[in-house]
Amino acid sequence: MKKIIVGKRVSNWNLAAAGISAFLALLFANLLAIICGRNWFWLLWIGFTIMNLVLYIPVVATSHKIWLVEGDHIAYARIPRWIDQMRYALHRGNSTEFLIRVPVHGIESIHMRWTTQLSLWSTTSYTLVMDVKRKDGSLVTIDALKQDPKNFVQAMEALKQAHVVVDDPYDLIEAVREGKDLWMYIDACRHHHMKTRHCA
Fold first, then answer.
1. Which residues are paired to 165 by β-bridges?
2. What confidence tens digit (pLDDT) does each residue in 117-158 have?
3. Is-contact 187 73, C-beta < 8 A?
4. Extended beta strands in 11-123, E state
5. How confident is the model at residue 87 (pLDDT cuts 50, 70, 90)?
6. Are 81 and 60 spatial neighbours (Cβ–Cβ below 8 Å)?
């Protein structure tokens, strides 16, 4: 059987370390600017350059999800970079769709829809709905955040049987949340160049 592993998100510690390093770099540049007098502009510019590099390397380089694909199965994901995630967070309404075809246990596919909604008071509400389509044609809708015990466990078990390795269901939720346009197909596709939404 093939295996697809969902990577981890960038940790808060990485973000904190990047922010502290950037602050220290900028502070050091300002001290040099004061000491050197008239050359302050160029030193400040160097400081900002260092700050950008310090922010870029640990944050952008580690903020991509890692999708490890083995064998004939295809996992296709477009994950926005760090700056795109900032722009994405500024929108009032965001939705992401996540389609998984799981031909096991009588389940044909799982369609996940993640929606983010910001209010005027800057509070954020989330919804994550999973439409589980059975091979007999029936459709079960699950509110994954409320975690309907029976259906949610059944859906997660289907993911497990399809060899989608998720340490914690909320890692999968975070993967959906952070993707601007994230689609994933687990199917019988045998051509690795067929990264389309209709690979069947």
1. 5
2. 544 454 555 555 666 666 677 776 766 555 444 555 555 555
3. yes
4. 67-69, 93-104, 107-118
5. very low
6. yes
**Residue 151 falls inside a structural domain:** yes
Cβ-Cβ contacts under 8 Å for 26 (sequence gap 6 or more): 47, 48, 51
For residue 131, is it within any domain?
Answer: yes
> Is 100 within a domain?
yes
Q: Is residue 191 part of a domain?
A: no
Residues pairing with 7 in the sheet = none
Beta-carbon count within 10 A of 73 CB = 21
Residue of 186, 9, 26 whose CA lies nearest to 98:
186
Domain extent for 115: 71-178
Do 23 and 99 belong to one domain?
Answer: no
Query: Considering the chain, what is the average pLDDT of its residues?
Result: 49
